[in-house]
Batch of 2 targets.
Target 1
Amino acid sequence: MNSISTFDITKYFLLDVMKDIKTGRIQLPDFQRDWVWDDIHVRRLLASISLAYPIGAVMMLQQGNQSRQFKPRLVNGVLKSENYTPNLLILDGQQRLTALFMVLLSELPVIIKDQKSQKINKKWYYLDIEKCLDPECDRCVARIQNYANLLR
């Protein structure tokens, strides 16, 4: 077998990645496990992003060779893609990208599973700007619990 693999380190803006997930240009290979994060994982990721901390690399597979393609599926939270054939499949980083997509661009509450009770919950995530601007405040607690807190 005489194949050459090419690896490329490309930096993309997070918003561009989220938009490509929403349109279906970026999808998951069918063998990837489902999204399984709980509330604390989502909160920690949002805290890291809001502090501009690195959140790790993402590995994607370019879907170019028609004879060697995996069956794609949409990322959780994507209601309807724009019928694009995906350019890229997420191989590593699915949990982080799915969480960010659901929080930032899906327009639906994030569906999470409580680790103790195994109960499914739907949550919206908001940041309290005053707390986020306070250098002494922990970003994980700067998240507003629910919409009712916004009205106070």
Note: Strands lie at 26-29, 59-62, 72-73, 88-92, 110-113, 120-123, 126-127, 143-144.
Target 2
Amino acid sequence: MRKLFFVILFSSIITISFGQSAKEMLSQIEGKWQLDDNGNVTIVKIVEVPELKRDEIYSRALNYFTYNYVSGKSVIQIQDKDKGLIVAKGIYANVHVGMSLITTYVDAWHILRVDVKDGRARLIVTLSEYEKKIIGGSSPPTYVTTKVAQEYPINENSGQKTVMTKAFYKAFLKANNSLESIEKAIKEGNTSKEIENSKW
């Protein structure tokens, strides 16, 4: 009986601490994203590079995609040098694994858009869909695809609140990391300044 009491107490403490950490995660990213007209989560970053012309910015951004979008699920959709536009679609794999009575593996689909002109670039990451693999008991896995806006925290009436809050937070971090990586590629190149500027 005493053992059972400690198991229940320990489980309650874990549940409470996970709930608090999920709330803290949301508060950390509050105001850093918005919903677009299609209900997708969007993050925008403007990169200022006054010393670079449009063609150079475009070339560096395109190189970023060449180095980073190499799997079958991550591909360039639009590549228009005249318009200064690159659009790619990719997946952030295993953004979160939620474990309880069931285990939920969450991937997040995203669209990454780069618009360039002389001296600046606009970077937009859109989180569009989750792919979930749900495993529980002895039955085979269930696969579900949902819009990000259909899940918590955007849809407060949806289920798996803690799991999906953590998936949302981690997908946001990956999207933000993509923006920072593209910014670095535009400002510094994709390998290193020393390598890219060396004589050959």
Note: Residues 22 and 166 are 6 Å apart (CA to CA).
